[in-house]
Amino acid sequence: MSITFARPSSSTIPLIVTTTEELDATIASAPKADVAWLSANGFTAALGAVCVCPATDGGIGSVYMGLGGKEQKRVRFAIAAGVSKLPDGTYTLTTTLEGDQLDEAALGLLLSGYQFDRYKSQKPVSRSFVAPDGVDTDRIEAMAAGEALTRDLINTPASDMGPQELEDATKALATSHGAAVSVVTGEALLKQNFPLIHTVGRASNRAPRLLDMTWGDRGPKLTLVGKGVCFDTGGLNLKPGASMGLMKKDMGGAATVLGLAHMIMALNVPVQLRVLIPAVENSVDGSAFRPGDILTSRSGLTVEINNTDAEGRLVLADALALAEEGAPDHIISMATLTGAARVAVGPDLAPFYTTDDTMAQALPQAAKTVADPVWQMPFHDPYEKMIEPQIADLDNAPAGGFAGSITAALFLRRFVTQTAYTHFDVYGWNPAAAPARPKGGAGQGARALLAALPKVLEL
Protein backbone atom coordinates (compact mmCIF):
# COMPACT_ATOMS: atom_id res chain seq x y z
CA MET A 1 0.00 0.00 0.00
CA SER A 2 1.27 3.47 -0.91
CA ILE A 3 0.80 6.32 1.54
CA THR A 4 1.69 9.60 -0.13
CA PHE A 5 0.66 13.22 -0.14
CA ALA A 6 -1.79 14.45 -2.77
CA ARG A 7 -1.04 17.16 -5.27
CA PRO A 8 -2.73 20.51 -4.70
CA SER A 9 -5.64 21.35 -6.98
CA SER A 10 -8.54 23.74 -7.22
CA SER A 11 -10.77 21.18 -5.51
CA THR A 12 -8.72 20.82 -2.33
CA ILE A 13 -10.58 21.68 0.87
CA PRO A 14 -9.00 24.01 3.46
CA LEU A 15 -8.47 22.19 6.77
CA ILE A 16 -8.00 24.70 9.58
CA VAL A 17 -6.55 23.13 12.70
CA THR A 18 -6.64 24.96 16.00
CA THR A 19 -6.25 24.43 19.74
CA THR A 20 -8.69 25.66 22.36
CA GLU A 21 -6.16 28.35 23.30
CA GLU A 22 -5.86 29.54 19.70
CA LEU A 23 -9.56 29.35 18.88
CA ASP A 24 -10.32 33.05 19.45
CA ALA A 25 -7.48 34.08 17.16
CA THR A 26 -8.60 31.55 14.56
CA ILE A 27 -12.16 32.88 14.64
CA ALA A 28 -10.95 36.46 14.42
CA SER A 29 -9.25 35.73 11.10
CA ALA A 30 -12.02 33.50 9.70
CA PRO A 31 -14.61 34.56 7.09
CA LYS A 32 -17.84 35.87 8.65
CA ALA A 33 -19.87 32.97 7.26
CA ASP A 34 -17.50 30.49 8.90
CA VAL A 35 -17.66 32.36 12.20
CA ALA A 36 -21.44 32.15 12.21
CA TRP A 37 -21.38 28.46 11.32
CA LEU A 38 -18.77 27.63 13.99
CA SER A 39 -20.85 29.46 16.58
CA ALA A 40 -24.10 27.80 15.52
CA ASN A 41 -22.47 24.37 15.80
CA GLY A 42 -20.83 25.07 19.16
CA PHE A 43 -17.31 24.40 17.91
CA THR A 44 -14.86 24.63 20.85
CA ALA A 45 -11.76 23.09 19.23
CA ALA A 46 -11.95 20.08 21.55
CA LEU A 47 -9.62 17.25 20.63
CA GLY A 48 -11.03 15.52 17.56
CA ALA A 49 -13.90 17.97 17.08
CA VAL A 50 -14.75 18.74 13.44
CA CYS A 51 -16.97 21.41 11.95
CA VAL A 52 -17.72 21.39 8.22
CA CYS A 53 -18.52 24.86 6.89
CA PRO A 54 -20.53 25.08 3.67
CA ALA A 55 -19.57 26.99 0.55
CA THR A 56 -22.01 29.36 -1.16
CA ASP A 57 -22.70 26.72 -3.80
CA GLY A 58 -23.74 24.17 -1.19
CA GLY A 59 -20.48 22.22 -1.29
CA ILE A 60 -17.80 22.10 1.40
CA GLY A 61 -16.14 25.48 1.85
CA SER A 62 -13.72 24.63 4.67
CA VAL A 63 -13.34 22.30 7.62
CA TYR A 64 -12.23 23.22 11.14
CA MET A 65 -10.62 20.61 13.36
CA GLY A 66 -9.83 20.84 17.07
CA LEU A 67 -6.58 19.81 18.75
CA GLY A 68 -7.93 20.37 22.25
CA GLY A 69 -5.93 21.90 25.07
CA LYS A 70 -3.44 20.42 27.46
CA GLU A 71 -4.76 16.90 26.84
CA GLN A 72 -3.15 16.85 23.39
CA LYS A 73 0.22 16.42 25.10
CA ARG A 74 -0.97 12.95 26.13
CA VAL A 75 -1.86 11.99 22.57
CA ARG A 76 0.54 11.22 19.76
CA PHE A 77 -0.68 12.42 16.37
CA ALA A 78 -3.41 14.52 17.96
CA ILE A 79 -4.24 15.97 14.55
CA ALA A 80 -5.47 12.54 13.47
CA ALA A 81 -8.07 12.32 16.24
CA GLY A 82 -10.70 13.91 14.02
CA VAL A 83 -9.70 12.54 10.61
CA SER A 84 -12.36 9.83 10.62
CA LYS A 85 -15.01 12.54 10.81
CA LEU A 86 -13.83 14.30 7.66
CA PRO A 87 -15.91 13.94 4.51
CA ASP A 88 -14.32 12.24 1.54
CA GLY A 89 -11.96 14.62 -0.24
CA THR A 90 -8.49 16.12 -0.51
CA TYR A 91 -7.42 18.62 2.15
CA THR A 92 -4.79 21.31 2.49
CA LEU A 93 -3.68 22.12 6.03
CA THR A 94 -3.72 25.52 7.72
CA THR A 95 -2.05 25.55 11.14
CA THR A 96 0.31 27.48 13.39
CA LEU A 97 2.27 24.29 14.13
CA GLU A 98 5.91 24.35 13.09
CA GLY A 99 9.12 22.35 13.33
CA ASP A 100 8.84 18.89 14.86
CA GLN A 101 5.17 19.48 15.71
CA LEU A 102 4.36 20.21 12.08
CA ASP A 103 6.28 17.11 10.98
CA GLU A 104 4.33 15.01 13.48
CA ALA A 105 1.07 16.45 12.17
CA ALA A 106 2.01 15.71 8.56
CA LEU A 107 3.04 12.16 9.43
CA GLY A 108 -0.13 11.70 11.47
CA LEU A 109 -2.27 12.73 8.52
CA LEU A 110 -0.58 10.18 6.27
CA LEU A 111 -0.71 7.39 8.83
CA SER A 112 -4.38 8.10 9.49
CA GLY A 113 -4.97 6.85 5.95
CA TYR A 114 -3.57 3.41 6.73
CA GLN A 115 -6.11 0.64 6.24
CA PHE A 116 -5.45 -3.08 6.46
CA ASP A 117 -8.20 -4.07 4.05
CA ARG A 118 -6.67 -7.13 2.39
CA TYR A 119 -9.46 -9.37 3.64
CA LYS A 120 -12.35 -6.90 3.37
CA SER A 121 -14.74 -6.84 0.44
CA GLN A 122 -15.92 -3.31 1.17
CA LYS A 123 -13.23 -0.64 0.99
CA PRO A 124 -13.46 2.31 3.42
CA VAL A 125 -13.82 6.00 2.62
CA SER A 126 -10.68 7.58 1.18
CA ARG A 127 -9.21 10.89 2.26
CA SER A 128 -5.97 12.51 1.15
CA PHE A 129 -3.89 15.47 2.23
CA VAL A 130 -1.61 17.96 0.50
CA ALA A 131 1.82 18.20 2.11
CA PRO A 132 1.94 21.18 4.48
CA ASP A 133 4.42 23.91 3.62
CA GLY A 134 7.65 23.55 5.57
CA VAL A 135 7.90 19.77 5.82
CA ASP A 136 10.38 17.43 4.13
CA THR A 137 7.83 15.60 2.00
CA ASP A 138 10.16 12.79 0.93
CA ARG A 139 11.16 12.04 4.50
CA ILE A 140 7.60 12.06 5.84
CA GLU A 141 6.41 9.81 3.01
CA ALA A 142 9.32 7.40 3.54
CA MET A 143 8.53 7.09 7.25
CA ALA A 144 4.83 6.58 6.55
CA ALA A 145 5.48 3.95 3.88
CA GLY A 146 7.95 2.12 6.11
CA GLU A 147 5.43 2.06 8.93
CA ALA A 148 2.69 0.86 6.57
CA LEU A 149 4.92 -1.98 5.38
CA THR A 150 5.61 -3.04 8.96
CA ARG A 151 1.91 -2.94 9.85
CA ASP A 152 0.90 -4.93 6.78
CA LEU A 153 3.43 -7.67 7.48
CA ILE A 154 2.42 -8.02 11.13
CA ASN A 155 -1.30 -7.84 10.45
CA THR A 156 -1.19 -10.59 7.84
CA PRO A 157 -2.17 -13.91 9.47
CA ALA A 158 0.38 -16.70 9.63
CA SER A 159 -1.60 -18.66 7.05
CA ASP A 160 -0.44 -16.06 4.52
CA MET A 161 2.80 -14.92 6.20
CA GLY A 162 5.09 -17.87 6.76
CA PRO A 163 8.84 -18.01 6.14
CA GLN A 164 8.33 -18.21 2.36
CA GLU A 165 6.00 -15.21 2.30
CA LEU A 166 8.38 -13.23 4.50
CA GLU A 167 11.13 -14.09 2.02
CA ASP A 168 8.89 -12.91 -0.82
CA ALA A 169 8.22 -9.61 0.97
CA THR A 170 11.93 -9.09 1.55
CA LYS A 171 12.72 -9.76 -2.09
CA ALA A 172 9.97 -7.38 -3.21
CA LEU A 173 11.41 -4.63 -1.03
CA ALA A 174 14.90 -5.34 -2.33
CA THR A 175 13.74 -5.20 -5.94
CA SER A 176 12.08 -1.83 -5.42
CA HIS A 177 15.34 -0.35 -4.16
CA GLY A 178 17.94 -2.22 -6.18
CA ALA A 179 19.14 -4.29 -3.23
CA ALA A 180 20.39 -7.89 -3.33
CA VAL A 181 19.00 -10.86 -1.40
CA SER A 182 20.46 -14.28 -0.69
CA VAL A 183 18.62 -17.05 1.16
CA VAL A 184 19.76 -20.17 2.99
CA THR A 185 16.89 -22.64 3.38
CA GLY A 186 16.17 -25.93 5.13
CA GLU A 187 18.98 -28.47 5.47
CA ALA A 188 21.41 -25.99 3.91
CA LEU A 189 21.25 -24.11 7.22
CA LEU A 190 23.14 -26.99 8.84
CA LYS A 191 25.69 -27.17 6.06
CA GLN A 192 26.36 -23.43 6.35
CA ASN A 193 26.48 -23.48 10.16
CA PHE A 194 23.20 -21.98 11.28
CA PRO A 195 22.24 -24.78 13.68
CA LEU A 196 19.94 -22.83 16.01
CA ILE A 197 17.85 -21.41 13.18
CA HIS A 198 17.46 -24.90 11.76
CA THR A 199 16.61 -26.45 15.13
CA VAL A 200 13.87 -23.98 15.97
CA GLY A 201 12.22 -24.26 12.56
CA ARG A 202 12.69 -27.94 11.73
CA ALA A 203 9.38 -29.15 13.23
CA SER A 204 7.36 -27.09 10.74
CA ASN A 205 6.51 -28.18 7.21
CA ARG A 206 7.41 -24.62 6.21
CA ALA A 207 11.18 -24.71 5.91
CA PRO A 208 13.24 -22.36 8.11
CA ARG A 209 15.56 -19.95 6.35
CA LEU A 210 17.96 -17.05 6.77
CA LEU A 211 17.28 -13.98 4.64
CA ASP A 212 20.25 -11.74 3.86
CA MET A 213 19.62 -8.42 2.09
CA THR A 214 22.38 -5.93 1.20
CA TRP A 215 22.25 -2.40 -0.20
CA GLY A 216 24.64 0.51 -0.63
CA ASP A 217 28.35 0.70 -1.36
CA ARG A 218 29.48 3.74 0.60
CA GLY A 219 29.49 4.97 4.18
CA PRO A 220 29.50 3.13 7.51
CA LYS A 221 28.35 -0.48 7.68
CA LEU A 222 25.01 -0.92 9.43
CA THR A 223 23.49 -4.36 10.01
CA LEU A 224 19.87 -4.82 11.08
CA VAL A 225 18.75 -8.17 12.50
CA GLY A 226 15.04 -8.92 12.88
CA LYS A 227 13.35 -11.84 14.60
CA GLY A 228 11.20 -13.55 11.97
CA VAL A 229 9.24 -16.15 13.94
CA CYS A 230 6.18 -16.21 11.70
CA PHE A 231 4.15 -18.13 14.24
CA ASP A 232 5.09 -19.34 17.69
CA THR A 233 3.20 -22.23 19.24
CA GLY A 234 5.74 -22.34 22.04
CA GLY A 235 7.03 -25.68 20.75
CA LEU A 236 6.82 -28.58 23.18
CA ASN A 237 6.37 -26.00 25.95
CA LEU A 238 3.06 -25.28 24.23
CA LYS A 239 1.49 -21.89 24.85
CA PRO A 240 -2.06 -21.75 26.24
CA GLY A 241 -4.65 -20.68 23.71
CA ALA A 242 -4.96 -17.16 25.09
CA SER A 243 -1.23 -16.57 24.67
CA MET A 244 -1.13 -18.05 21.17
CA GLY A 245 -3.79 -15.77 19.72
CA LEU A 246 -1.44 -12.94 18.78
CA MET A 247 1.53 -15.03 17.73
CA LYS A 248 1.22 -13.98 14.10
CA LYS A 249 3.00 -10.85 15.36
CA ASP A 250 6.06 -12.77 16.55
CA MET A 251 7.79 -11.71 13.35
CA GLY A 252 7.31 -8.07 14.38
CA GLY A 253 11.06 -7.55 14.70
CA ALA A 254 11.58 -8.64 11.10
CA ALA A 255 8.68 -6.46 9.97
CA THR A 256 10.15 -3.47 11.79
CA VAL A 257 13.66 -3.80 10.37
CA LEU A 258 12.16 -4.12 6.88
CA GLY A 259 10.19 -0.92 7.50
CA LEU A 260 13.36 0.81 8.69
CA ALA A 261 15.28 -0.57 5.71
CA HIS A 262 12.69 0.97 3.39
CA MET A 263 13.15 4.37 5.07
CA ILE A 264 16.93 4.17 4.78
CA MET A 265 16.92 3.09 1.14
CA ALA A 266 14.14 5.45 0.04
CA LEU A 267 16.04 8.39 1.51
CA ASN A 268 19.43 7.20 0.18
CA VAL A 269 21.01 7.35 3.62
CA PRO A 270 24.76 6.91 2.96
CA VAL A 271 25.29 3.56 4.69
CA GLN A 272 26.22 0.06 3.64
CA LEU A 273 23.08 -1.66 4.81
CA ARG A 274 22.64 -5.33 5.60
CA VAL A 275 19.41 -6.88 6.84
CA LEU A 276 19.44 -10.38 8.35
CA ILE A 277 16.17 -12.17 9.14
CA PRO A 278 16.00 -15.70 10.55
CA ALA A 279 12.54 -16.74 9.32
CA VAL A 280 11.02 -19.77 11.03
CA GLU A 281 7.83 -21.21 12.43
CA ASN A 282 8.11 -22.71 15.91
CA SER A 283 5.86 -25.75 15.57
CA VAL A 284 5.33 -29.15 17.18
CA ASP A 285 5.99 -32.60 15.74
CA GLY A 286 8.28 -35.52 16.44
CA SER A 287 11.34 -33.58 15.31
CA ALA A 288 10.75 -30.61 17.64
CA PHE A 289 13.60 -29.66 19.94
CA ARG A 290 13.07 -30.51 23.60
CA PRO A 291 13.48 -28.98 27.05
CA GLY A 292 16.82 -30.19 28.36
CA ASP A 293 18.47 -30.35 24.94
CA ILE A 294 21.86 -28.69 24.63
CA LEU A 295 22.48 -26.98 21.31
CA THR A 296 25.66 -25.59 19.80
CA SER A 297 25.33 -22.20 18.15
CA ARG A 298 27.14 -20.79 15.12
CA SER A 299 29.60 -19.01 17.41
CA GLY A 300 30.40 -22.25 19.26
CA LEU A 301 28.62 -21.27 22.47
CA THR A 302 26.40 -24.05 23.83
CA VAL A 303 22.85 -23.39 24.99
CA GLU A 304 20.78 -25.45 27.42
CA ILE A 305 17.12 -25.40 26.46
CA ASN A 306 14.97 -24.89 29.53
CA ASN A 307 11.94 -23.65 27.60
CA THR A 308 11.23 -24.17 23.91
CA ASP A 309 9.06 -21.04 24.03
CA ALA A 310 12.21 -18.91 24.41
CA GLU A 311 13.09 -19.58 20.77
CA GLY A 312 13.49 -16.03 19.47
CA ARG A 313 16.84 -15.51 21.14
CA LEU A 314 18.05 -18.77 19.63
CA VAL A 315 17.43 -17.82 16.00
CA LEU A 316 18.77 -14.34 16.66
CA ALA A 317 21.96 -15.78 18.14
CA ASP A 318 23.03 -17.38 14.86
CA ALA A 319 22.06 -14.28 12.87
CA LEU A 320 23.96 -11.99 15.25
CA ALA A 321 27.06 -14.17 15.01
CA LEU A 322 26.89 -13.89 11.22
CA ALA A 323 26.31 -10.14 11.49
CA GLU A 324 29.49 -9.66 13.51
CA GLU A 325 31.53 -11.70 11.05
CA GLY A 326 30.87 -8.92 8.52
CA ALA A 327 32.64 -6.40 10.79
CA PRO A 328 29.93 -3.70 10.65
CA ASP A 329 30.16 -0.41 12.49
CA HIS A 330 26.92 -1.05 14.35
CA ILE A 331 24.51 -3.97 14.77
CA ILE A 332 20.86 -3.37 15.67
CA SER A 333 18.48 -6.20 16.52
CA MET A 334 14.72 -5.87 16.85
CA ALA A 335 12.49 -8.58 18.26
CA THR A 336 9.18 -9.27 19.94
CA LEU A 337 11.25 -11.08 22.50
CA THR A 338 9.79 -11.04 26.02
CA GLY A 339 6.56 -10.49 27.89
CA ALA A 340 8.74 -9.05 30.65
CA ALA A 341 9.35 -5.96 28.53
CA ARG A 342 5.61 -5.33 28.32
CA VAL A 343 5.26 -5.66 32.08
CA ALA A 344 8.12 -3.20 32.53
CA VAL A 345 7.08 -0.43 30.13
CA GLY A 346 3.71 -1.39 28.64
CA PRO A 347 2.84 -1.72 24.96
CA ASP A 348 3.51 1.89 23.93
CA LEU A 349 7.20 2.26 24.74
CA ALA A 350 10.00 0.52 22.85
CA PRO A 351 12.68 -0.52 25.35
CA PHE A 352 16.23 -0.68 24.02
CA TYR A 353 19.64 -1.77 25.23
CA THR A 354 22.91 -0.50 23.84
CA THR A 355 26.65 -0.85 24.33
CA ASP A 356 27.22 2.47 22.54
CA ASP A 357 27.18 5.70 24.56
CA THR A 358 26.44 7.83 21.52
CA MET A 359 23.39 5.73 20.72
CA ALA A 360 22.27 5.90 24.35
CA GLN A 361 22.27 9.69 24.19
CA ALA A 362 21.10 10.22 20.61
CA LEU A 363 18.21 7.76 20.44
CA PRO A 364 15.92 9.17 23.19
CA GLN A 365 16.50 12.69 21.88
CA ALA A 366 15.74 11.67 18.31
CA ALA A 367 12.64 9.73 19.41
CA LYS A 368 11.04 12.92 20.72
CA THR A 369 11.33 14.59 17.32
CA VAL A 370 9.50 11.83 15.43
CA ALA A 371 6.77 10.76 17.88
CA ASP A 372 8.35 7.34 18.40
CA PRO A 373 8.91 6.90 22.15
CA VAL A 374 11.74 4.68 23.42
CA TRP A 375 13.17 3.87 26.82
CA GLN A 376 16.68 2.70 27.65
CA MET A 377 17.09 -0.46 29.69
CA PRO A 378 20.37 -1.67 31.24
CA PHE A 379 22.74 -4.42 30.20
CA HIS A 380 23.12 -5.19 33.91
CA ASP A 381 26.30 -7.26 34.21
CA PRO A 382 25.54 -8.76 37.66
CA TYR A 383 22.64 -10.64 36.05
CA GLU A 384 25.01 -12.51 33.74
CA LYS A 385 25.13 -15.40 36.20
CA MET A 386 21.38 -15.89 35.69
CA ILE A 387 21.95 -17.03 32.10
CA GLU A 388 24.78 -19.44 32.94
CA PRO A 389 23.58 -23.00 33.68
CA GLN A 390 25.82 -25.69 35.12
CA ILE A 391 26.25 -27.88 32.04
CA ALA A 392 26.36 -25.43 29.13
CA ASP A 393 27.57 -21.94 28.32
CA LEU A 394 24.13 -20.37 28.29
CA ASP A 395 20.58 -20.93 29.51
CA ASN A 396 17.83 -19.86 27.12
CA ALA A 397 15.19 -19.46 29.86
CA PRO A 398 16.51 -18.71 33.35
CA ALA A 399 14.33 -19.90 36.20
CA GLY A 400 12.68 -17.45 38.57
CA GLY A 401 11.14 -14.98 36.14
CA PHE A 402 13.09 -11.96 37.36
CA ALA A 403 14.47 -9.40 34.86
CA GLY A 404 13.30 -11.40 31.86
CA SER A 405 13.90 -8.70 29.28
CA ILE A 406 17.36 -7.91 30.67
CA THR A 407 18.49 -11.54 30.79
CA ALA A 408 17.28 -12.03 27.21
CA ALA A 409 19.28 -8.98 26.13
CA LEU A 410 22.34 -10.25 27.99
CA PHE A 411 21.94 -13.59 26.19
CA LEU A 412 22.00 -11.84 22.81
CA ARG A 413 24.97 -9.68 23.79
CA ARG A 414 27.05 -12.84 24.18
CA PHE A 415 26.96 -13.16 20.37
CA VAL A 416 28.12 -9.59 19.65
CA THR A 417 31.45 -9.13 21.34
CA GLN A 418 33.46 -6.85 19.06
CA THR A 419 30.86 -4.47 17.60
CA ALA A 420 28.69 -1.61 18.88
CA TYR A 421 25.32 -3.23 19.55
CA THR A 422 21.78 -2.01 20.14
CA HIS A 423 18.85 -4.32 20.87
CA PHE A 424 15.12 -3.49 20.87
CA ASP A 425 12.58 -5.66 22.73
CA VAL A 426 9.42 -4.41 20.98
CA TYR A 427 5.75 -5.35 21.26
CA GLY A 428 4.82 -4.67 17.65
CA TRP A 429 1.12 -4.26 18.38
CA ASN A 430 -1.39 -1.59 19.34
CA PRO A 431 -3.86 -3.27 21.73
CA ALA A 432 -6.35 -0.40 21.33
CA ALA A 433 -6.98 2.09 18.55
CA ALA A 434 -5.45 5.57 18.89
CA PRO A 435 -5.13 8.51 16.47
CA ALA A 436 -3.18 7.36 13.38
CA ARG A 437 -2.48 4.06 15.16
CA PRO A 438 -5.29 1.55 14.62
CA LYS A 439 -5.52 -1.60 16.67
CA GLY A 440 -3.11 -4.13 15.20
CA GLY A 441 0.45 -4.30 13.97
CA ALA A 442 2.75 -1.40 14.81
CA GLY A 443 6.32 -0.38 14.14
CA GLN A 444 8.31 0.76 17.17
CA GLY A 445 11.72 2.38 17.25
CA ALA A 446 12.27 2.57 13.50
CA ARG A 447 11.67 6.31 13.11
CA ALA A 448 13.72 7.03 16.22
CA LEU A 449 16.61 5.02 14.80
CA LEU A 450 16.34 6.76 11.44
CA ALA A 451 16.58 10.12 13.17
CA ALA A 452 19.47 9.02 15.41
CA LEU A 453 21.64 7.36 12.75
CA PRO A 454 23.35 10.55 11.48
CA LYS A 455 24.78 11.20 14.93
CA VAL A 456 25.49 7.57 15.82
CA LEU A 457 27.26 6.76 12.53
CA GLU A 458 28.66 10.28 11.99
CA LEU A 459 26.94 10.63 8.64
Question: Would you kindly provide a written description of the structure presented here, covering whatever features stand out?
Answer:
The chain is α/β, with parallel strands linked by helices and 459 residues long. Helix content is 32%, strand content 20%. The protein has 14 helices and 19 strands. It has helices at residues 23-28, 32-40, 99-111, 137-155, 163-177, 188-191, 195-201, 241-244, 252-266, 312-325, 339-345, 357-369, 404-413, 446-456; strands spanning 13-18, 50-54, 60-66, 89-94, 127-129, 180-185, 209-215, 221-226, 228-232, 272-282, 294-296, 302-304, 330-335, 350-354, 374-376, 394-395, 420-425, 429-430, 440-441. The strands form four sheets. Strands 6, 7, 8, 9, 10, 13, 14, 15 and 17 form a nine-stranded mixed β-sheet that branches. Strand 4, helix 3 and strand 5 form a beta-alpha-beta unit. Helix 7 (195-201) runs antiparallel to helix 10 (312-325) and helix 9 (252-266) packs across helix 14 (446-456). The longest helix is centred in the N-terminal third of the chain and has 19 residues, at 137-155. The radius of gyration is 24 Å and the shape is elongated. It starts with 12 loop residues before the first strand and ends with a helix. The model has no long low-confidence stretch (mean pLDDT 96).
